[in-house]
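Inputs:
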Amino acid sequence: MSGANRRTPGRLDRAGIAKLVAADIPPGSYVNLGIGQPTLVADYLAPDAGVILHTENGMLGMGRAAQDDEVDHDLINAGKVPVTETPGASYFHHADSFAMMRGGHLDVCVLGAFQVSFDGDLANWHTGKPGAIPAVGGAMDLAIGAKQVYVMMTLFTEAGVPKLVPSCTYPLTGLRCVSRVYTDYGVFALGGNGVEIRETHGIEEPDLRDELGL
Amino acid sequence: MSGANRRTPGRLDRAGIAKLVAADIPPGSYVNLGIGQPTLVADYLAPDAGVILHTENGMLGMGRAAQDDEVDHDLINAGKVPVTETPGASYFHHADSFAMMRGGHLDVCVLGAFQVSFDGDLANWHTGKPGAIPAVGGAMDLAIGAKQVYVMMTLFTEAGVPKLVPSCTYPLTGLRCVSRVYTDYGVFALGGNGVEIRETHGIEEPDLRDELGL
Amino acid sequence: MTTICESADEAVAGVTDGATVLVGGFGTAGQPVELIDALLRNGATDLTIVSNNAGNGSHGLAALLAAGRVRRIVCSFPRQKDSYVFDELYRSGRIELEVVPQGNLAERLRAAGAGIGAFYCPTGVGTPLAEGKETRTIDGRDYVLEFPIHGDVALIKARQADALGNLVYRKTARNFGPVMATAAKLTVAQVLSVTEPGSLDPEVVVTPGIFVDRVVACPSPAVLAEEGAGA
Amino acid sequence: MTTICESADEAVAGVTDGATVLVGGFGTAGQPVELIDALLRNGATDLTIVSNNAGNGSHGLAALLAAGRVRRIVCSFPRQKDSYVFDELYRSGRIELEVVPQGNLAERLRAAGAGIGAFYCPTGVGTPLAEGKETRTIDGRDYVLEFPIHGDVALIKARQADALGNLVYRKTARNFGPVMATAAKLTVAQVLSVTEPGSLDPEVVVTPGIFVDRVVACPSPAVLAEEGAGA
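Outputs:
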């Protein structure tokens, strides 16, 4: 495990995390941004980087959220928010859209998470609480479908419990599928060498290791 | 086995067989006509019957053979003969075309055969001769893909050997897939009740039974 | 052969109790509201519904659920901000739920339409949704065996049909329509307009008419905006 | 990201000895002759070719075979009236042949592109082409287990590309192009013309640019008419 190669004195906010993710997406990539926090990443992609957004409900070349009279309820993203199309967009049906994901054609997928394990297991679809209504959507397909799966999340729960864990306790979404974890306190690369701390924010690396039990 | 309900004094020629097949295709059917002799059936379909022809290389609504300046080498049938399109035609790729066949959506498929067995096994892709280059094309998909598979063939080889047989000796194309056999000497329905002689042409039914060992 | 129907009621005639009904749409986009309303009038009950979601607000699919016509729903994302009808039925034990990853739902429907008996699928391996299912390692990767989902009826929404039943769709409202059309014994499409054969460019037909049994024109369909968000 | 190449030679650069090359076309319709000619100049040898046929006449795929570059061919219908180049190589034991039912060829390519590990297929059951393969009875019907066909490279022909690599095709020349585009690590398309992004209606794109790595405009491609007939 090598040391962090960048650090800032302050913990990052959501926008700060989204900026880091956006900066790590290579120009020209095909990218799926999951529902919720990951959609913020779109705001920080350079317009000339040529990143093309996929939405699993059947579109490549998704544009920004629709405003006012742009709203068309036949043109929505996976979160069911009305969006726009960009030049060079295309529409396709659900089996083709998920074949695109599951066949490994997306370069990057950015997802939220309840927990990520040190070896890249992802838990982001179900809290497992009794009475909770299960709903998976495209989460499991996205988890296994992209060449790189990036997770964006706070590093700790509101109760202060780490969400980057030796082993997930929540129901799994996918096994060994996450390659990077972007959080308010640091950025982590997961893979064959275990957890590598790439950046720290508002915490010293030894303290971060202690907190996570690394 | 019920008796033949129609008979003619003379043996049928190819056109005669094709007419019988065409008359048995319900109006509005989606039909695939195999390469060779079955293509003759198209000439006897009533124009107002609304039968829609499928060609497995990616088209519904195939029209007649192209003539003169209609010839377009991007618009061919499964036998690679230039054809035309009809109003309401559609094009699709090969996986979609074969999904259409294999999913059981075609009403009728008409094929030629080397042999058909009494219980509907079909042999029409390979003579099994040493040195023959095997080539199957879409034959096996057509054999299992349509709701009804009709075979058109001469009932006997040039050497006088029956081609409707207790068990095929040629390499099989599909198992228990043929529902009717149209030949120069008679029409046969195959199914749960064995071989039913529906029509005889140029031969008396008892003699036909003798010849075939029925 | 495709029949052009005079009304949505005629288009759903014959759907019987206990039927498995595939219902197009992703949330409200592509949801065939007029056909669902007709199915409600038709009276069929004890239905199994296969659809991405479990209804929004109180109209369309949600109304069918509210009327107690649905015994079981197979979907990827039942819980949405405006899925209160389903939520209440589920919590009170009055509806069965099978949650299926969205890609498996789409691929299982495609398999039904394409004559595939079953397929080894990369999604869901090692998760609770694969529990009890067969798995197999192929070329070093693990897969779960998934089976087709066949429908008795598919109710879908498209933009335009020609008189032969060829369909084109509109933007992301296309979603499940094309695969559901292939997977049911009886496929019914509501469209904005029905035009002459030859009016659609053969290169751009998305669902060929072979998959479409009945079409009805609903020129001014209900537009159900989402009351919330989900997936 | 899709690269628009200046020449067919640039478009096939980097294809190496021993590669598995998916070649689009059904007979001559959709056969990417200019890309094949460039592959011939490129010099790669010991190739495995996956294509519906085994070449027509003496041009295109047949020329690649004649030059001894192909070790093995996977196809549904090698024998045609004008497949004399292949016939001679096969009869003299200088090329390996795997015959695959046409629908299995298409579905196995689709499976490769769609991340399917294997599938139970109704075609070929009980025939010599299923010998030695796993079978399974599902809901009373017998199936054969078939595996994906992955390509290192796909060479396909389309009508038009936009600068993002979105493709549309022409009539029955579409055939294997869309599935092969999804099944290879490197997909190369020759097209009649390359136009601006936004020039193709998003509703009618057949192959989205995500599947296309390189495009080259060949405005006047060779038209190889069949010398005979086959399937």
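Remarks. The helical segments of chain B are 14-23, 94-102, 139-145, 205-212. The first strand of chain B starts at residue 6 and ends at 8.
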